[in-house]
Amino acid sequence: MSRLPLNSLAYALLEAARIDTAVLAGQSLADGLLSRVDAAARPAVQDLVYGSLRAYGRGDFYLARLLEKPLYVDEVRALLLVALYRLETRPDAVHTVVDQAVSAAGEIAGGNFRGLVNGVLRNFLRQQPALTAAFAADAGAAAMHPDWWLARLQAAYPDSWPAIVAAGNAPPPMGLRVNSRRIGRDEYQALLVAAGIAATPVGESGLALDHPVSVDALPGFADGLVSVQDPGAQKAATLLAPAPGSHVLDACAAPGGKTAHLLERSDLDLLALDLKPSRCRRIAETLTRLGLTARIEAADCTKLTTWWDGRPFDAVLADVPCTASGVVRRNPDAKWLRREADIASFAAAQARILDALWQVLRPGGKLLYATCSVFPAENGGQIDRFLERQPQAYRRHEEQLLPTAEHDGFFYCLLEKRD
Fold first, then answer.
1. Nearest-angstrom CA–CA distance, 40 and 37
2. Residue 45 belongs to a domain with what CATH number?
3. What does each C-alpha distance from 250 to 261, 310, 395 come to in angstroms?
4. What is the rounded radius of gyration, in angstroms, for the C-alpha atoms of the chain?
5. Is 301 a known active-site residue?
6. pTM score
7. Domain end: 229, 249, 272, which one?
8. What is the tens place of the pLDDT at every residue in 57-112?
């Protein structure tokens, strides 16, 4: 239990260091690591966690030059990484940051590393110009991605890989999807203007905010007027575009954003599946807030006998599990948790899902395969292999969205089942 005040920077630095330690040991932020932090301090801790993980490659580069030998206490190393991130992003408060980082160090390993933390951070400030110049001159380090990841991007996107890397290292944009069942986009944009929030229309029912805000600041969020959803993710519902009254399956539906968008567009007989009951509860919460209804079941979509009643679907959304390589700025832990072998593992699981879901689609029906990946083995390569296995399948539309300042990275392929 920390003795630091909850509203102090020292507390935020310490808690962020503990979360970073867990991530670097193999845990995912999706496992609820931030939920263990006191709610009042959570926004400050989250900012430090996400920022320091995005900048992990830079902090690691600095520490390799600032430490005479490797640290054997992981939390101390993580604290230094978090503090270095804070020093770079708050140059107006460097003395406060050092002081608070030393206080945080007092809570780790009996306080035996207070002097080391103080010395390393002050040494960084003295050497900062030289260190930042050396970092910028090292192309591999400056990319702040694992070497194997960079090699994959360079092979797949020889001209655009630097832009993909830069987007992955930047804070993400914030997009909204207006609930057309409740309010028109222009009308909702007027509510944003009245609240002092600037936004630009994008896509069919989306708005891109000039600057991110908390959901509590969004007019009518609790009443279901709007959802937070990246503009790239909003393309799923518009590409699948099931006709009103269609029998539709969303096979990997949690947390329910794409499910909700489908239902906002038209009345559907929709079944939403996900593997875990806890994830299904998230779908239900999403739909309840938006005033929408669907059947929701916890099931493995590849095990048809456990959930399918034999009635073919008119349309299927297969938003499959993937490496999330197109959304790493929202999931900065993914770069450091993933291993190159994971690509083949995900691709094998995706193939099983595709083959299973193809069986529940009626002749003439549509299946939209979707990932938030930029790795071809999960995307176009996956579809090429599927088409070889399934002669009835016809590729109606395919597109790879690369991450930009406007949207995240997604892959979509709309398949039709020929009679």
1. 8
2. 1.10.940.10
3. 11, 16, 19
4. 23
5. no
6. 0.91
7. 229
8. 999 999 999 998 888 889 999 999 999 999 999 999 999 999 999 999 999 999 99
